[in-house]
């Protein structure tokens, strides 16, 4: 799947592209059905909400669960990113965010590349976020909020917030958010929230400033976030464990387009539990840095 010149221009301008209903209900169900087993596991890769057993985010499902391993190699998801970068990509991060009914907490305003730069020493912003809805997303269940065009500011100031939620994040302060929203149109389009059925997909730039409110509705808002990094732009430090920031920089090999509906064989190396190596961290900069 290639992007049209109009889509490329829109991505450059707004920092995101929305594809409602990109995966069918049948394809999405294969993924949704695999979530309860993953969320039930008592492993480090399940980060639970503050003071609650609800899963906030699950890491590395593509190494644990076959349906998600197949999604990670899906051409309808990977090809537009390769097309935009003009280069092959590897999987930098893989999350399934719960945002569960009544319990899903906020994600403060942030840019993902801020974290990847500060924590992982990713050299440039040549990495893309892909969100895939596993539930319908509406105005009630904590949709993502984007500030269109904010990616064009590059990396903005952020501070490391270790206390607001159960997951540390480099967050952008309110004064700067006010300015960015004003510049993007204020009350007229300064914040947008793509909403749509389960199976919808969003591509968004790693510098796009985004957030989401809490989910006080009775509707879950489970979504997969895949972060695809251009191979030449791989991270240079392993300060975070491998289940959060991956260390396999080999290009993603694609499966056929029907891979969610047919059981093509895939490797799921962490199926029986996280290996000790996936928990190790190091402050050192890699010495295998190529151009
Ligand atoms: C994120 O920004 O990583 C998650 C946001 C959300 O799930 O609402
Ligand atoms: Mn984010």
Q: Could you characterize what this model shows?
A:
The chain has 291 residues and is of the alpha+beta class. It is built from seven helices and twelve strands. The strands form three sheets. The protein has a seven-stranded antiparallel sheet with strand order 1-10-6-12-4-3-2. Strands 5-11-7 form a three-stranded antiparallel sheet, with no helix packed on it. It starts with a helix and ends in a 61-residue tail after the last strand. Bound molecules: succinic acid and manganese (II) ion. Manganese (II) ion binds at residues 110, 112, 210.
Characteristic key phrases:
291 residues; alpha+beta; seven-stranded antiparallel sheet; three-stranded antiparallel sheet; 21% helix; binds succinic acid
Number of helices: 7
What is the CATH H-level superfamily? q2cbj1_9rhob like domain
Low-confidence stretches: none
**Integer tally of domains:** 1
- The count of DSSP E runs of length 2 or more, i.e. the number of strands, is 12
Kindly provide the radius of gyration, computed on alpha-carbon positions and rounded to a whole number of angstroms.
18 Å
Helix proportion? 10-25%
Percent range for β-strand residues: 15-25%
Largest sheet: 7 strands, antiparallel
CATH architecture: Sandwich
Structural class category = alpha+beta
Order of helices and strands: HEHHEEHHEEHEEEEHEEE
Shape call: globular
Fold blueprint:
Layout lengths: L4 H10 L1 E4 L5 H8 L2 H6 L5 E3 L6 E5 L6 H6 L3 H11 L3 E9 L9 E4 L1 H9 L6 E7 L10 E3 L12 E3 L7 E3 L2 H10 L17 E5 L4 E3 L10 E8 L61
Antiparallel strand pairs: 1-10, 2-3, 3-4, 4-12, 5-11, 6-10, 6-12, 7-11, 8-9
The protein binds succinic acid (SIN) and manganese (II) ion (MN).
The site of succinic acid has 8 residues, from strand 11 and strand 12.
